[in-house]
Amino acid sequence: MTFSVHGLAVSRGVAIGRAVLVASSRADVAHYFIDADKTTEEIQRVRVARDAVAEEIARVQRELPKDAPHELSALLDVHLMLLQDEQLTNGVKHWITDRLYNAEWALTTQYEIIARQFDDMEDEYLRERKADLEQVVERILGFMKGVASPVLPAARAAASREPRQQDLLLDDTMDVPLVLVAHDISPADMLQFKKSLFVGFATDVGGKTSHTAIVARSLDIPAVVGARSASQLIEQDDWVIIDGDAGVLIVDPSPIILAEYGFKQRQGELERQRLNRLKHTPAITLDGQKVDLLANIEMPDDTVGAIAVGAVGVGLFRSEFLFMGRPGKLPDEQEQYLAYRKAVEGMQGLPVTIRTVDIGSDKPLDKLAGRAQDGQLNPALGLRAIRWSLADPPMFLTQLRAILRAAAHGKVNLLVPMLAHGREIRQTLSLIDHARAELDNKGIAYGPVQLGAMIEIPAAALTLKLFLKYFDFLSIGTNDLIQYTLAIDRADEAVSHLYDPCHPAVLRLIADTIAECNAQGKGVSVCGEMAGDVTMTRLLLGLGLRSFSMHPSQILAVKQQVLRADAGKLERWAQDVLASEEPATLL
Predict the structure, then answer these.
(1) More confident: 121 or 348
(2) Which of 113, 121, 127 lies closest to 362, judged by CA?
(3) Which of 79, 183, 211, 503 is catalytic?
(4) Helix/strand/coil (H, E, C) string of 493-532?
(5) How many angstroms separate the CA atoms of 446 and 97, rounded?
(6) Secondary structure of residue 86 in the 3-state scheme
(7) Residue of 552, 558, 564 lying closest to 537 (CA atoms)
(8) Long-range pairs for 513-519: beta carbons < 8 A, 24 or more residues apart
(9) C-alpha torsion angle, residues 228, 233, 235, 237 (rounded to 10)
(10) How confident is the prediction for the chain on average, in pLDDT?
(11) Is 5 helix (H, G, I), strand (E, B) or coil?
């Protein structure tokens, strides 16, 4: 019987194949109490398993093929750091020594405690790092049970199956394609896509910024995440269609549906080939308006992907990724300088916009975990982003010096997040001047930077003249601007349906910001999810936006929209959209 399972569309395209299920190691963990004299033995079992998993990941990292996505190495680093996390290891010891839990029970108990902390984080990307922790725990449990990486054994077993009738609808001369269905997939296992018959995957958990989504986009593999109970509803060998455009899984499709999606799959491949031909085509509208399509990156190596798709610069380097997963120690000035310099040099003379660390109470670092949790009743409105930086001037000055030094190697823009008050602006600028003076006193070379501010709080959008008095450019962070304008916690499923990029108030704030910057001759860009949404491209062009920053995988699709648009003719239509009570109906 044909049925569908809905999730989140995170990587475009259609995959058609037979389901290979990967079970969760935590599903059948034994729970029992141990004798007091066995605690050392149980702790040692966990330690041995942890060390073995660390060695396995390190080996995978050393043996990464040259064509492996650069995101994978960074994600493997995160897993290695999580394996050494003191909160995890000390917590497991506590449950074994104080409660006399067996090793597996202690490990899963401590996982649940840390997982709840991730659930309470406001930031979507960091909230989804819980999946990385879960995969680390899964691997430790798997080693303790003597289970190897699930992907390759599953692929080998699936490849030996007898063909079904649907197989013959594709091509009886080819290997039957496989799709992976799992609760979640680790970065190391994702590598096996390069070595197996898998053409797509689906997971129960994850979001648009989860590691599985990031790697899927870099590999250009159709994927659906957050499909809840997909791994329970789908059975081994079921024929499955993964629609990465709609975020839907179709299980046991009829021949008619299968043929329809086969056609869609072929059309998608042709479209992808057409988009690839646009890599070196300048993004210019039909009426001659030049549009800058920039890349959002998390790590210096991401510049490789940005250059590959023809990005004309980096519009957002999220520097907080250098700070995460570092128990007890933040990156020092030299480490940050080398990372920023690598990104600048990687862009081969194109501009790089580095955002100062956007982390805080809702995104606690180990170094400040105690302070971060103290008295924060509403993390989304707490000590985060520039507020966190201004509360720790030595840390902030360290980062500012590193960014200024990197500017000696190419064009760098410095972007400050979450400003709302004039005193915050003046304090930030004072610290930037102080960082320059420190470098002067030490005789260390640095370069000039353009200064920018994020517009992500309504208060900032309503006081634009104040911001443009001090800054060279503004960058609209639509994700937070929508959240704060509509008082919607994106992490709360009860109200997440009210998160609306097309709400008239949101569009008005965006339109006014673009108009004021254009009137004053100051640069303005959009760097939130809206910039990479092709359904919003025409509207943003009509509102006067000429700089978009997005994930590299979205650049060519947005470029296609730009090349087809007449920006002048879109202006009046954009004003009609702004005046509408239901703008989404006009897009």
Answers:
(1) 348
(2) 121
(3) 211
(4) CCCHHHCCCCCHHHHHHHHHHHHHHHHHCCEEEECCHHHH
(5) 53
(6) helix
(7) 558
(8) 513/455, 513/461, 513/464, 513/474, 513/476, 514/476, 514/540, 514/543, 514/544, 514/545, 515/543, 515/544, 516/464, 516/465, 516/468, 517/464, 517/468, 517/473, 517/474, 518/544
(9) -70
(10) 85
(11) strand
Residue from 219, 233, 226, 236 nearest 15 by CA: 219
183, 409, 527, 551: the catalytic one is 527
The structure tokens listed for 357 are: 């660390």
For residue 361, name the pLDDT band (cuts at 50, 70, 90): very low
Active site residue 79: no
C-alpha to C-alpha distances, 365 to 361, 368, 371, 394, 441, nearest whole angstrom: 9, 5, 10, 16, 31
Which H/E stretch holds residue 22?
Answer: strand 14-22
* Predicted local distance difference test score (pLDDT) of residue 172: 41
Cα dihedral: 544, 553, 20, 144 (round 10): -110
Average of per-residue pLDDT across 393-415: 97
517 has catalytic annotation: no
* 203, β-bridge pairs: 182
Residue 67: its pLDDT value, please?
A: 67
Report the distance separating Cα 258 and Cα 252, nearest Å.
9
Residue 118 is encoded by which pair of tokens?
């991730």
Question: How many whole angstroms separate alpha carbon 27 and alpha carbon 91?
Answer: 21
Q: Letter for the amino acid at 579?
A: A
CA–CA dist 60, 103 (Å, integer): 26
User: For 217-226, 338-347, 359-368, which range has the lowest pLDDT when averaged over its residues?
Assistant: 359-368
Question: Out of 179-193, 308-322, 551-565, which region has the weakest mean confidence (pLDDT)?
Answer: 179-193
Instruction: Tell me how long the chain is.
Output: 587
pLDDT in tens, 297-309: 888 988 998 999 9
Residues whose CB is less than 8 angstroms from the CB of residue 486 and which lie 6 or more positions away in sequence, other chains included: 498, 499, 500, 503, 505, 506
- What confidence category does residue 322 fall into, taking pLDDT thresholds of 50, 70 and 90? confident
Residue 418: per-residue pLDDT: 95
